[in-house]
Amino acid sequence: MYFRSFSVLAVAAVALALLAIQVKTTLDAIGFGKTYTNVNTTSCRQIGHGVLHGCEDIIVDPHTGLAYLACGSIAARQRWLNPDDPYDIAHEAETDHVYVMGENDTFSEIHLLETAADNRLVPFSQPLRLHGFDIYWDPADPRLMTFMLVNHQPGNPAISIFSFKRGADYMVHVETVASELLRSPNNILALSPRAFYATNDVKYTHGIKRSLSANLRLAHGSIVLRNETGHFSVAAPAIRYPNGIARYNNTVLVASCSDPGIRTFSINPDYTLQPHGRTNIRDGIPDNLSVDTQSGYVYATTFLKIGQTHKFFHSPSLETTRTAGTRIRRFGLTDNAAQKMESESVLVDGGELMPSATVAVIQRRNQVQRMLVGCVMCNFVVTCPI
After folding, report:
1. Residue 90 CB coordination number (10 Å)
2. How confident is the model over 343-363, as pLDDT tens digits?
3. In the sheet where 221-226 sits, what is the strand order?
């Protein structure tokens, strides 16, 4: 009896210890009770006020250094990013936009067009709610680009695909594709002019099931593949809220929000993804990922105080910006996809510069080297020298 009681107590002690570790890890990730000192922000600037707002994702052309930004109406995003909130279509009076930016802060819009029945080019007529996006460059002529835009069309989340030639002020709609597997696309990785991976962050998009899945950190997310023939399948199942996705050579990197970290995969011959490794993030919730192809570093934006971030997403204001915060981490890739990546913090902002950044990219163009930082709910973009 003594040994049985001792065994029960030992098991209970181990369970409590594991629970305590889990609670501490969660509190560290969400920034509970923490304050942050700004690091490397004194030379940063806000640019594009009133135009470059809601720029959730940014991609830099490795051939030219030009930056492309997917931006949109903050008023609309406050609603459709929170799908259980009351919604009024009047908030979508302004459509979303794609911009191109050089190294001197000048930017211009790239207009989205479609081909009419009489072959005229006319404005894109479908709803446009931009989230993440990616670009595929033609290997034979990198001036020819395919834009793949995550488009949260009402009741039918989709990927809208456009063709673009560098230097033009417009892109032309090719197709918009959807699938029952693509329940809640967040970000996308282009594989060809037709094929892509998309992170499917949740299984349930509304109601109590969504809340339970998120709060219990259930592995209900997945990575969905659309292949060259247009067929959709699950390339990697059971991921806790997959968010940003990026690629370096044959390694695919995916940010996991509910289990904070970056997972690495290799691409199998059939384009399913083979899991290899994982690098934990102890002090934040990761969002988008980007790869600086020159250095090979992976950059990840992380939310420091997720509760304050949620508050900010519902009501962007000075009162909420100063209590949220961002850390930008840089990860060093290795040849071994299973090996954990070494990381370092390159910028910390307690909320004074930019609350809850969603993407950080490195722009190198005409001797200028800088970091561009975007935010889904900000009225500007931030630039920092490197």
Report:
1. 8
2. 999 999 988 898 789 999 999
3. 185-190, 196-200, 221-226, 232-239
